[in-house]
Amino acid sequence: METTAPNAPASIASLDELEAPPLSLGQLTWRRFRRHRMAIFGAVTLILMVLYAFGGALFFSEADANRIDTGARLQAPTQEHPMGTDTVGRDILARTIYGGQISILIGLTAMLVELLIGVTIGAMAGFFGGKLDSVLMRFTEAVLVIPQIFLLLVIAKYFAQTIPNIKLMGRTFSGSVVVIVFVIGITSWPYLARIVRSQFLSLKENDFILAARATGTSTREIILRHILPNSIAPIIVAGTLGVASAITLEAYISFLGMGVRPPTATWGNMLEGAYNYVESAWWLWFFPGLLIALIVLAINFLGDGLRDALDPHSRAA
Amino acid sequence: MKNDNLLLDVQDLRTVFHIAEGTVHAVNGVSFKLNECETLAVVGESGCGKSVTMMSVMRLIPVPPGDYASGKVLYRERDLLQVSENEMENVRGKEIAMVFQDPMTALNPVLSIGRQLTEPLRVHLGLDKENAQQRAIELLEQVGIPDPARRLSDYPHQFSGGMRQRAMIAMALACAPSLLIADEPTTALDVTIQAQITELVERLRDQLCMAVIWITHDLGVVAGLAERVIVMYSGFIVEEANVEAIYENPQHPYTLALLEALPRVDRRRHQRLKSIPGAPPNLLIAPHGCPFAPRCEYAYDRCREENPPLLPISPTHKLACWVDVSTGKPR
Prior knowledge:
- The complex is a heterodimer of chains A (317) and B (331).
- Chain A is an all-alpha fold.
- Chain A is 67% helix and 2% strand.
- Chain A has helices at 10-19, 25-34, 37-55, 62-66, 92-128, 130-145, 148-159, 176-203, 207-214, 219-227, 232-255, 267-271, 283-310; strands at residues 166-168, 171-173.
- Chain B is of the alpha/beta class and 331 residues long.
- Chain B has eleven helices and 14 strands.
- The longest helix of chain B has 18 residues, at 191-208.
- The chains are: A mainly alpha (317), B alpha/beta (331).
């Protein structure tokens, strides 16, 4: 526990305090956040994992990650291959690095898709209310009652081979990456939409919204400049947790063989087929599995910390 | 400063709310006129339609559940109830501005004072960032906020209640509106701040030649500020007169009762304030007879049957009552 002991007599400090500008929302949030030990652990772990995935690329090229060497297949961890090799002799360390990049990027972009859909639908339903609200919320509930994994698999299967490979920044990505991002995004938004709707429903009744209208602010400005910034805290929290769930979902579908296609590695598709070797080649599933578990754990701790830091009212719960 | 140019002419305004339990008759055929640079006070109990009337003038009532059932709001001869929502956005803040009751909730907590103050300037006057900033500093200075340049980047929670109300007034005055509607702007403030805010509005009104509609249930505030007073009850105007006439020669039993309820320095100490028995009528029930009749000590049979219309009793005095309060007999 960190205690904030006064480091100067109160009489001297008080003058400085009067002169010092009051803490901004960001500073207050940071104060609460850093008292949350698990959140700090989560943030540090997350930074280390991002460094691992993106810094590791300085030591291994993507070719290393994809080089097939059937002579060296299923090797246990050695000096040369610290995490061993997979069923076709690719180096697992290099693949976890490049796979990590894809997994993290999938998590982030799927979250963005989720935010875009969820915030738009939630904001429209909450702000305009009435018939539009009914239609949008019934639609949201309809998406919500279909099991997400089932929906994911059907859509992933349907779009599986339709998108060609994508070249970006000198690298080639399997088109399935885009499919997965899209599929995760369009199945994850309902919860967020409900959160945003409830925020808008309560915020739009505030006096300052009426006051803004009385100064001639347009509806668009009221939604984007007055209500949305006030509901940013739960959106940040939901977005953070959304990254973790997107990474997990990617792992699920990749494990079931409908996710990202080889040769592009992800932590999820490295697990594909590994269940055949649970006892004989533990390194096949152990390292990617560990990384997935770690990053999901880290993000969830971070999200918890952000929730407590951004919304002090919910701390009692 | 005074002139007789008609600024606002409200004719037979009816605002109702359709809710699950039925129709709430909030404003029942209100008509009044306001000249440029004139100050009008609207008094009455809570829930008698003062705020809804003025919000209807600015068309701030959400439709649905609200509905402008009939009437016209002629602002410079243009009916504001008929113009498009886009045109209305240009009227709000630029032509007609409003100051609200509770300054603690009427400012957006996540936007800086400067941001909220420059917004109407940039929208309505098309000022660029620097000019808007400069004008905002002038405005804050005008309403008496010390060190305005530094205060601009502050957030509402860093302001006290009185300062927030000053900032709200600065926002309302930003585009030099011709009409300021102040909806009980001093109710949430303590007495000394009340006096300061009232003086501030008075001073700015005289400087800018701005018409002011001051909604209040405090007749004490009205005396020094307004030229004309409208007394509202249950969505009706029951009496309209010059401010002197309201105090010296009140004609409606409700106005009398309101004045009786005022604490006075010339009355004996420890004497209980007189209150009006009963409560305002349920607005869900369509009005029948005079709405004040159940609480009125002068009421007789006709009052319960027929609602008195608002008729002039002198060129500057209008009254809606069947009774002559000086004699207690029917007129």
